[in-house]
Amino acid sequence: GENVEQHPSTLSVQEGDSAVIKCTYSDSASNYFPWYKQELGKGPQLIIDIRSNVGEKKDQRIAVTLNKTAKHFSLHITETQPEDSAVYFCAPTWSSGSEKLVFGKGTKLTVNP
Amino acid sequence: DAGVIQSPRHEVTEMGQEVTLRCKPISGHDYLFWYRQTMMRGLELLIYFNNNVPIDDSGMPEDRFSAKMPNASFSTLKIQPSEPRDSAVYFCASSPGQVVQPQHFGDGTRLSIL
Questions:
Q1: Does B103 contact A106 at a Cβ distance shorter than 8 Å?
Q2: B50 contacts chain A (CB < 8 A)
Q3: Which of A100, A64, A71 is nearest to A4 (CA)?
């Protein structure tokens, strides 16, 4: 099965700085790479995803980059704001017909005003 | 779009009691997932359904846990008898399916077993 690791487990930045979270996976067959954001008292919500035929995807202040050779992908948040404070999860998976996502342990991001 | 709806939001009950958690997925979504979240184990998939049929229940911890999906708009997760170690936040999620698609999560049920 997929072995997923996220680093760092906690990250504290000043408002306006950039934040980067890295996700390493073990299954070379993985071809779908989403990032979820979980705010306090809420369920995880998808913020950005990428498929294996693309190396990078950007949506305003957030971006995801994929390195399939090294089996890792990263979440980049620029110009961080206090509302970016949350727990972020990666969930790499293989779209073989199984819809299972294996979630990383999460990264708690704190943006200090 | 109403989103995935879970009830109750909070449940406190005594050990040995039966607990039933409920979920209404997004209309038109073919897949429904039940997760459990704890500090120690993170977010774990318990079971998922496709078109109301259970596909993979390998994450269900033991026979005390059962899940049903009698129709496309309703699912239950039942624990009988409940134990203190079942205390966690339980999430339901749904997705359209057809090649891995984003999962849409409800806001969860916080379960405390005393």
A1: no
A2: yes
A3: A71
